[in-house]
Amino acid sequence: MSQSANNTAFVEFERVQKSYDGETLVVKDLNLSMPKGEFLTMLGPSGSGKTTCLMMLAGFETATHGQIRLGGTSINDIPPHKRGIGMVFQNYALFPHMTVAENLSFPLEVRKMGKAEREQKVMRALGMVQMQDFAGRRPAQLSGGQQQRIALSRALVFEPELVLMDEPLGALDKQLRETLQFEITNLAHQLGITVVYVTHDQTEALTMSDRVAVFNDGRIQQLAPPDELYEKPQNSFVAQFIGENNTLEGVVQEISADACIVRLDSGDIIDALPVNVSKVGDRTKVSIRPERVEYDKSRLRPGAHTLKAEVLEFIYMGDIFRTRLRVAGTDDFIIKTRNAPDQVRLTPGTQIEIGWLEKDCRALEA
Amino acid sequence: MKLTKAFMATTALTVAGTVVMAAGHMADQMTIVSWGGAYSASQQAAYHDPYMANTGVTIINDESSSEAVAKLRAMSEAGNITWDLVDVEAADAIRLCDEGLAMEIDADEVLAPGDDGSTATDDFGDMLVNDCFIPQIVFSTTFGYRTDMVPEGVAPPSGACDVFDQETYPGKRALNRNPVANMEWALLCDGVAYEDVYDLLETDEGQAQAFAKLDTIKDDTVWWTSAAEGVQLLADGEVFMGSTYNGRLFSAIVEQNQPIGMAWDWQMFDLDGWVIPDGLSDERLARVLDYVRFATDTQRLADQAKYISYGPARQSSAPLVSTHATLGIDMAPHMPTDPANAENTFVNNYTWWADYRDDLDAKFQSWLAQ
Amino acid sequence: MSEVMLAADGRPLKASLNRALRRQKLRALMLIAPLLIFIMLTFIIPIGQMLFRSVENQIVGDTIPRTVAALADWDAEAEPVPGEDVFSAFAKDMMVAVELKQHTRLGSRLNYEASGLSSLFRKSGRRVDDMGEGYADQFAAVDPAWADPATWVTLMAAPRWVERQAAWDGEGAEPKFILSASITDDLPQTASIYADFARVTQSEDEESPTEETPWNVVYLALFEDLTANPDVQIAGPVGDLVAATVPQLAAFTQEDIRAAFVAADDGWEETRVWKTIQTYSAPYTDGYFLNAIDLQKTPDGVAWQPENEQIYITLFLRTMMMSVLITVSCILLGYPVAWLLANLPARKANMLMILVLLPFWTSLLVRTSAWKVLLQQQGVINDTLVWFGLVADDNRLALINNATGTIIAMTHILLPFMILPLYSVLKTIPPSYLRAAKSLGATNWTAFWRVYFPQSVPGIGAGSILVFIIAIGYYITPEIVGGTKGVFISNRIAYHISTSLNWGLAAALGAILLAMVLLLYWAYDRIVGIDNVKLGG
Fold first, then answer.
1. Nearest to B363 among C49, C309, C501 (CB)
2. How close C522 comes to chain A (CA, Å)?
3. Which of A207, B267, C98, C399 is the most exposed place for a label (fewest CB within 10 A)?
4. Do C101 and C242 reside in the same domain of the chain?
């Protein structure tokens, strides 16, 4: 299920701004459009505005400016309880004075649903998360993972078309988080619901989402599917925020449509793909993923520029090797190599030459 | 028995605790208990200040007279008397004397003779209601009314019986929250002759009659417990008329210019004076006796009347009563004993009340609470 | 597994552990010891004393022991007024009591049970030293030696006391009088009353029995003893005097003690008076507790007080009702404030908190008096209402000196006790619960009522318990603004403590109040659960 399947926007932010104090904007000119059935993650450091966007969508915060639309109609003036949006909170927000079944029954009761129907729906929702046996328990008697399952099924029990999740797995340990990530995406796809998911954990964002919106400083820095985000970061923030990355600084010396030559501050010359640079003399930060660095000359384009490097440290990490090099005046240039049978292990002190395909080295704005 | 005594002693200690704390006894120090307000001020000016100046003894004032009987009993049970001299009404003096909480004295030995040469016994005369009581003043419980609230075309109230006349004088009343005087007024104003009042009050029928009369104004009455409260209610215009002590009314009318008038008829005379707690050490007793001899001589008692309109208890002091200390007005017309103010009066029958107070208090308080 | 686990040094592991723990416990105990002692002295012991006083009744037996003994087998059915022996015993007891100034206290004590007894005791007290005077004169007429204190000392005192007394140089206190051993058998009544006489003379009057003629009632006792036992043998010259006097007794004019009492006050002919004394002669009594719930002990068992003296049940109920009203108004007024406090940004919340706490920094009397100024008929509130034309000038609202005044002033005073615990509980309820409820489709009201409110119940519970328990025992404010219809049971307790001096009844009322509070606490625990009370996070 991808955005191309459905072109009509289901959730839409149009020029949305938000300010709490009338002096600074927390959200600056947000534009976003989501088709039905998409799983979209808002990713960013804390204070980047992602949670505020979620709260505006849920109706707990009002937009200072701009329009938020759901299914084509503006919901700016609709109170939260009439928006029909399911929501899962980081601290679960299960009502402690009610049993699990009562918690699930609550949204149905306020919708004036009959008792029999309620019970049936509650059990079905519990079934979706394999928690039927816990209907009579109180939230305090459940583990964190169980509570989050209940919170999830409560957000789904009244069959909303849109579900918002605010860092729902933040408080769980790694193992459990991975299991639940899988369950949540599975459920979302099975039920065909649209999900807006907020997290600051990039792995979570990359593994779960159809698209990821990377937030920083109140703006969406890049909105793209996970692979594109990783492979083709639009700017140096995204490049650095997503995954591990080597950065070198320099000035554009030659430029064409699909390649450029950059003179680094150390004087070395390298090849790169111009992304955010336009003319000779632009300062740039070039970004290259550790796993795309080659030191086997045979795998490089003939005539490609190479850099001299000294091996400083070799770390064995099981599936990969991680090697730290001194390159062009920096001591923290990382390369990663797969632990393949024929893979050479570099020993500290060795002098090598490294290079890359120019499409893997992106010249971004300084 | 031992257990009881121990229990009593500690309970009494708890009750008297604050007093004990407050009044540590030092060499030249004396705690005198009185009523507070304008009355204490008059004693301070007439007695304490000159005495302290003469002798260097420090006098500490304690304003606990309204609870004197209870506190003295507590102190006596705790075996720690912290008071040296206590100002009480005659009826309380009788109670304290009967219970052995006050010391019996020989008036001629302890009190100075009058400056006209009469012995103390003769000079105080009937005011010496028992062996413990050292009389100071004659005061009266009488009525004040708001001059600005008298209905038009009606003569202002003249005395106690107008308090029951709701038709002529509508409005709220203020009365003392205890049976003394109220019971007498109820019967007097219900047509009972004064000679019969106390005999009648001894009977259930008489008590019922008095309560029935009081019932007619019960809903319109604010009951005060401290004299200052009674005056304040008048000063605020909260009540149309109310009973209180004549000296308090005097200071409200003359010193503070409140629109209040006096209604003297059927005022009740009463005595106020000192008792010495029983069980003082010889040293403390000697100090107190020296003070008492000074403070009750002819001149000193007359001096107090310069500050408050209460009559001195010595006959020999009467001719010395002159003018108000600061206002310079003649005090005589403001005295309860002035003939113009004393057409119908009666004297608090302390001995009768000493016998019947327990009884009537209980009934009066129950009546109030119902 | 029955084998005992041993520690490394071979001792049983349990014992070692206990020893280690005991030191810890001891240290903990030492830390709380000052508080514990303080609470014992200021709380537990006074409460114990209060409970004790509410049943303690030793004053009757201590003050009139002879009378109590003589009344023990008096049957009011057979004999409406007790016989001469009771009156005779009573005259002796009264004589001692009057000298010790205890009869008025006994009168006051018995007056709580039957009105009129206080005046009866006071009146008779003034007459009792004349009783038996006839016998004193007649004994003296037989032989003037009977009027000589020395005769009595020889007859009554133990020889060793006579020696010591003779050796006494007048400095310090006279040696305490000692009764001769044999005389108690020979002349029991006389010996007993003479011992009292000697004791009182020494302690109260600071005189010596060697110089004081005995009370008249001593002669009464002597007459009775000699009449009962004319053959009494007493050694020495005094014995001869006694022997010489006995034959003359027949010619004595007998004195009617009962008539003397009745002459003092004819109340002594009333069965109810004696029945009251008899009923209350036991050292412990439930009388105070009965009085505290408008009952009384009568010769025919427990009965209601006369209708015009029944006030305590009314007062207890009123205290409860008004405390509930005050608690409810505190909840209604305090909840929104606590909510605001918990949800405002910190700076504004602090300001508001200061406003809430402000009353705590003002003296209680000042606050209550301020309410007086505000609420009275010529006060600020009435003036404002009249100015706005909401109330007619001649029909101003009675907001003070009644129950309304008490409720208004006490709600104000106790409000912080509701707001503070409520606030600390509301603060722990995350706002996400309300958001969750709204996102699930609940309106603001439903979200509050179904989700927020139930979680704030522990705070309401804590606040209510605090407010209610403080209110139920409140005293100053009702006293000042309550008039007669707005006073609490505590005002009655204060009245009995400081004015009527009926400490036993005050103690019984206090004990009942305490029991009521404990009962409510227990009920609350059963219904709501005391762990559901939270004073904070």
1. C309
2. 23
3. A207
4. no
Residue B215 shares a structural domain with residue B94 = no
**Domain enclosing residue C30, as ranges:** 1-53
**Is B267 within 8 Å of B342 (Cβ atoms)?**
yes
pLDDT tens-place string over residues C337-360:
999 999 888 899 889 888 888 877
**Is B58 within the bounds of a domain?**
yes
- Which backbone phi and psi does B99 adopt, to 5 degrees? -90, 0
Residues B246 and B348 grouped into a single domain:
yes
Q: A250 and chain C: CB distance < 8 Å anywhere?
A: no
Q: For the segment A303-330, what is each residue's pLDDT rounded down to a tens digit?
A: 778 888 889 988 888 888 899 988 888 8
Q: Give me C68's structure tokens.
A: 């109590």
Query: End of a domain among C234, C254, C274?
Result: C254
Residues of B in contact with C308 (CB under 8 A): 363, 366-367, 370
- Kindly report the backbone phi and psi dihedral angles of residue B162, in degrees, each rounded to the nearest multiple of 5, phi listed first: -65, -20
Bridge pairing between strands A307-316 and A283-288? unpaired
Alpha-carbon distance A343 to C390, whole Å? 96
Asked if residue A3 has pLDDT above 70, the reply is no
A–C: how many Cβ contacts below 8 A? 67
> What are the strands of the beta sheet with A39-43, ordered from one edge?
A85-88, A162-166, A194-199, A39-43, A211-216, A219-224
Kindly state whether C436 is in contact with chain A, defined as any CB-CB distance less than 8 angstroms.
Answer: yes
Shortest distance, CA A365 to any CA of chain C (angstroms): 40
CA distance B182 to B268: 10
- Which tokens go with C452? 């927020």
Q: What are residue B355's phi and psi, to 5 degrees?
A: -75, -40
**Phi, psi (degrees; rounded to nearest 5) at C180:** -65, 145
Domain ranges of chain A: 3-236, 244-365
CB A169 within 8 A of CB A181: yes
A244-365 carries CATH number 2.60.120.340: no
How close does chain C come to B365, measured CA to CA in Å? Answer: 9
CB-CB neighbors (< 8 A) of C56 in chain B: 4, 7
Same domain, yes or no: B111 and B143:
no
A86 touches chain C (CB under 8 A): yes
C529 touches chain A (CB under 8 A): no
| Residue range(s) defining the domain that contains residue B120 | 2-138+272-326
Residue A220 identity (one-letter amino acid): I
CATH number for the domain formed by residue range(s) A3-236: 3.40.50.300
Sheet (strand A73-74) strand order: A27-35, A9-18, A65-70, A73-74
* Distance in angstroms (rounded) separating the CA atoms of residues A16 and A11: 13
Which residue from A97, A107, A164 is facing C440, i.e. has the nearest CB?
Answer: A107
Q: Is C487 on the interface with B (CB under 8 A)?
A: yes
- Residue at C327 is within a domain: yes
Q: d(Cα A55, Cα A186) in Å, to the nearest integer? A: 25
- Residue contact B355–C122, C-beta within 8 A: yes
Burial of A140 (0-12, 13-18, 19+ CB in 10 A): exposed
ipTM of the complex: 0.81
> Distance between CA C182 and CA C232 in Å, rounded?
11
Residue B265: pLDDT band (50, 70, 90) is very high
* A283, A362, C133, C479 from A222: Cα distances, Å: 21, 15, 122, 74
Cα B309 to the center of its chain, rounded Å: 13
Closest-CA distance of chain C to residue B362, Å? 8
Residues B255 and B231 in one domain: yes
Does pLDDT of A122 surpass 50? yes
Taking alpha carbons only, the member of B296, B311, B319, B306 closest to residue B347 is: B311
Touching check for C495 and chain B: CB below 8 Å? Answer: yes
CB-CB neighbors (< 8 A) of A80 in chain C: 435, 438-439
